Amino acid sequence: MAIQNPRDLFLYDLRAMYDVEQKLAQMLPVLAQESMDNAAREAFLTHEQETRQHIRNLEQCFQMMGSQPATLESNAVAGLTKDHEVFLQQQPPVQALVLFDLHAAYQSECLEIAAYHNLIDTASILGLQGCVQLFQQNLQQEVSASQKLATIAHQYIQQQVQPAQNAVPAAPMPVPEQANTATNPYAAGSSQMPVSNLAPQAPVSQQSYASNNQPMSEQDSGTASSNVSEDKASLVHEDMRVVGSDMGNIGHVKQVRDNDFLVDIPMHRDLYVPFDAIQDVEADQVVLNIPGFKIGDMNWAKPSLI
């Protein structure tokens, strides 16, 4: 199709996304059939049903634009499918295939998340609010699916390297926050090219995420820090689970120092968390005073790569 204006480009991207969802709807039951892990199989089948609803949502957007649903070949998904075929030729053991499929599915979710952000931005600018709402529904489920797949993958690989009874609770990879017209980094009206939620963002002030979700005064902040240091920091020890104020899994304590503790974040660089970021310490976990998905935004120290 000839691309002459933003509306043409939007329709081009919409057709590509329609192809992506169609292909994934066919691929997910294949991954489920290959998987010998119940949690992975259930995740694949659940998201297959969600993906079929995503296809129907895209078809509604086509109708809103007065266009017939049509696909445009997506080389990104075709590449993931080819990678899967090549991996099968290696005749991998069952455990390796399960983990490969989980990682491949997670990659596909990241691609979809980025694509839906683009579609939401353009649809907002074009005034296609009906499409925006449908895309946001799809995006939220893609984010949720990526979190679930990351958690299962982390848990599964731990079971392969250590006894299940000693496994540390799984922590999902940080993923883009669920989008809406208020928080979407691609919201209409921005004077600058938006930065994808998948990319590192500007540091967030620690005091913006107090336990009551309200900015702390200077006096309150000092009191809270003192109380945490005295009452809770001493309770932190290695291997404790670390979660956000939203109870979202982050990782586990790897090392405790005088003023902070090192958190092992699966598939991401470790991070030193200051004691004043602690909201509570329970029997087996440390609860921070920020949501789990904001951990990557904090301007906290990281261990040397050398």
List keywords for this structure.
alpha+beta, globular, 6 helices, 306 residues, single chain, 49% helix, six-stranded mixed sheet
Which sheet architecture does the biggest sheet show? 6 strands, mixed
Strand content: 5-15%
Q: Choose one word for the global shape.
A: globular
Low-confidence stretches: 176-228
Radius of gyration: 22 Å
Element pattern in H and E:
HHHHHHEEEEEE
Average of pLDDT:
80
**Overall helicity:** 40-55%
Biggest sheet, spatial arrangement of strands: 4-3-2-1-6-5
Helix segment tally: 6
- Give me the secondary-structure category: alpha+beta
The number of E-state strands comes to 6
Distance between the termini: 51 Å
What do these coordinates show?
By secondary structure, the protein is an alpha+beta fold. Helix content is 49%, strand content 9%. It has helices spanning 6-34, 38-64, 75-89, 94-126, 129-161, 218-231, and strands spanning 241-243, 249-256, 260-264, 271-274, 278-281, 285-288. A 6-stranded mixed β-sheet has the order 4-3-2-1-6-5, with no helix packed on it. Helix 1 (6-34) runs antiparallel to helix 4 (94-126) and helix 4 (94-126) runs antiparallel to helix 5. 34% of the residues are buried. The model is unreliable at 176-228 (pLDDT under 50).
